[in-house]
Design brief:
This protein is of the alpha/beta class. The protein has two domains: 181 residues, Rossmann fold (3-Layer(aba) Sandwich), CATH 3.40.50; 173 residues, Glycogen Phosphorylase B (Rossmann fold). A seven-stranded parallel sheet has the order 3-2-1-4-5-6-7, with helices on both faces. Strands 10-9-8-11-12-13 form a six-stranded parallel sheet, sandwiched between helices. Strand 1, helix 1 and strand 2 form a beta-alpha-beta unit.
């Protein structure tokens, strides 16, 4: 884990809980190639082993060093020693962390090394326990800044943990519109979708926070009067079989397609009329950004980032309640407004959230707080 010191660069140590691909890791994959290598020496460390086939390390530029530990919990002293060895070898000028475990452990050991620390909040964690809330509140004093990916995340976390709002800095997630594949689309016949059918798209992991059963129930109500519409679900997860059974019980299997996890989602955006999300929580959804960048309006429950991304009736619609009727009504409203103007407005909105702007804001943060 050793590295030679380079006094001309600021050494930035980015610490993640895992290299498994989630929203935070997806953003980091976009950011890492763009950090100025002449000014910053970037190290990435994962504290827990990656259990997925694909990891962030697969997409990291070769000039960025990736370090891997295998923590089993807070009291894994051997891994703590390994982390301390890495810190002594690298001697970072700034540590930036993501997610609760990384945020916590890097702030606990900070007094022994003296590095400035920036912590990041990626979501509105409505189920965070009392101990975790108390821990974050106390350790917030160690953070130079707490970066939130949206205004909603900053406001929610500040209120939940009683941390002064001025402690937070909002840096939105970014999208690289120029890198999107807008030339290839899925052959509709391979999905058993008619050429003149309309398509609702869901993209995400089948996890509780995504609230996919509500989407299925709302679509079941909607498609009774809209028989030419099909719902395509791109993703996978432990509850996929349960969701497929649920779709069957709702009698909508003819209008629903489960296509599994796809490494390249872009071709599905090319055939979609809208993206639909019924999540309980989001920070600032990468999927929402990708959809908008492809000119796909977004219909979503009011989660983190929606106030910045969704202009009602222009770039999408907000689902006003967590009920099947509200989902169905929002879909119906969209059918009355869908137009090329909405698609153009969606693309224009995405252009406000470039990955270059996100990286520039992080680099300014590095320059301000690195020792």
């Amino acid at each position: 884990m050793g590295t030679q010191a380079n006094p001309t660069k600021k050494k930035i140590f980015i610490v993640l809980t895992s290299l498994s691909i989630g929203g935070a890791q997806q953003q980091l994959i976009r950011q890492l190639p763009r950090f100025d290598a002449a000014r910053f020496e970037i190290h990435v460390m994962a504290l827990f082993a990656c259990v997925d086939a694909r990891s962030l390390a697969d997409d990291v530029p070769p000039h960025i060093q990736v370090h891997q530990l295998r923590f089993s919990g807070f009291f894994d002293l051997w891994s703590v020693f390994g982390l301390c060895r890495a810190l002594r070898a690298i001697q970072p000028d700034l540590v930036m962390t993501s997610l609760f475990f990384s945020n916590t452990i890097m702030r606990i050991i900070q007094p022994f090394f003296g590095y400035p620390v920036i912590t990041r909040e990626h979501n509105t964690y409505i189920h965070k326990g009392v101990v975790a809330i108390w821990t974050d509140r106390v350790l917030a004093r160690v953070s130079k800044k707490i970066v939130a990916v949206s205004e909603e995340v900053a406001d929610f976390t500040s209120a939940q943990e009683h941390i002064p709002r001025e402690k937070f800095l909002v840096i939105h997630n970014g999208i690289d519109s120029a890198a999107l594949d807008t030339t290839h689309s899925i052959d509709r016949s391979s999905l058993r979708i008619a050429a003149d059918a309309h398509l609702c798209l869901f993209v995400g992991r089948f996890a509780a926070q995504k609230n996919v059963p509500l989407l299925l129930e709302g679509f079941a109500q909607f498609c009774k009067a809209h028989t030419s519409w099909v719902l395509v679900l791109v993703g996978d997860g432990p509850i996929r079989q349960t969701l497929e059974v649920h779709a069957q019980s709702l009698g909508i299997t003819d209008q629903v397609r489960f296509v599994g996890e796809q490494r390249q989602v872009y071709p599905y955006y090319q055939i979609a009329d809208c993206l639909v999300s019924t999540s309980h929580i989001e920070g600032m959804s990468n999927t929402h950004l990708e959809a908008l960048a492809h000119g796909v309006p977004v219909l979503t429950t009011p989660t983190g980032g929606t106030s910045a991304l969704i202009v009602e009736g222009e770039t999408g619609f907000i689902v006003p309640a967590y009920t099947p009727a509200a989902v169905a009504e929002t879909l119906h409203t969209f059918t009355q407004h869908m137009s090329n103007n909405m698609r153009q407005a969606a693309k224009k909105k995405a252009q406000e959230f470039t990955i270059e702007k996100t990286v520039q804001q992080y680099e300014q943060l590095f320059e301000t707080y690195a020792r």
